[in-house]
Amino acid sequence: MQIGIDKIGFYTPHIYVDMNKLAERRNVEPEKFTIGIGQEKMAIAPITQDAVTMAANAALEIVDEKDKEAIDFVIFGTESGIDHSKSAAIYVHHLLGLHENARSIELKQACYGATAGIQMAKSHVALHPESKVLVLGSDIARYGLETSGEATQGAGAVALLISADPDILALDHDSAFKTDEVMDFWRPIHSDKALVDGKLSNEQYIAFFANVWEQYKAKTDATLADFEAITFHLPYTKMGKKAFKAVLDEGTDEDTERLMTNYQISAEYNRIVGNIYTGSLYLSLLSLLENKEDLQPGARIGLFSYGSGAVGEFFAGTLQSNYRKQLPLGKHNQLLESRTEVSVSEYEAIFEETLPTNGSDVTLDTAGDPAEICLAGVKDDMRQYVRKG
Asked: PANTHER family in the record, alphabetically (predicted)?
């Protein structure tokens, strides 16, 4: 029985800041952002969007009435959780109108959470082939204004429906993974902003990729020639390229040209959205599937997932015969092109606008947010979500 990704949905907020203009305001050469880290635009989450609303908006795109009957597990990978106890998955379960006979949980391991969710979902479907699992990766990357990590912020969510006989990508059984205790990136309980040792994080990302790639080759006898493309978790688009270059000498010139061409295509969405943590790898996959029109069914796609702290995994899948019919072609490009640019000053003001931390109530104006699902405020320490339709 084949198990894998049956549908993919994506959402990012309706506003962004231009990285050239951010660089100028920060008194650095624009090429440091646009070429040095490979980012052109950075998605910004208004106060009316959080991890829950973004995930729900992404899921709305793919979950139909038939899916609602089959989904009996909702797994929410995030490091932008809204509650220390209650899972974000329960809110999404409610907002989507799923039936009550379903499990709903939240997973956390930095940017690896959604991948852990997929692996858990595969096991569930293997035992219950009639079931479908909704896996969510939703995050707001926040490092702070004028910090070293500011240029690698972003916001967005990816929703994946995992099922038997998937229509998009059948995932292999074999994968390779590694865990090590590394303080390259973390967010203390008292902080709403992440801390990062950028140099160490880059080094560990590359080292983890090399380690799991070697493991994977030993397990499967795979070579670069076996892959049409390899997609990466992308905190910024140059990061995956750095790791990739370390192994490209294992293949032929033809392998290098094919893989690097497809890598650039897989990074197109990330380049204009920014880092979305748990959803980043799957945004790369989506970018490849939607923007490479001649990608053929039967092609093998590798995936490298990395979550600081740290856990890494390499796995792969095979494109199915009708995969393009399952993609909302053109819709995501339309979403991205319809966004509104804000000035750096406006971005800074939006960044500083946060919910009360003293338990007071607040009502938010959702009229300016075009999303179907929004955060409308906080009352009695409970977030108030609205679905407009």
From this structure: 3-HYDROXY-3-METHYLGLUTARYL COENZYME A SYNTHASE, HYDROXYMETHYLGLUTARYL-COA SYNTHASE
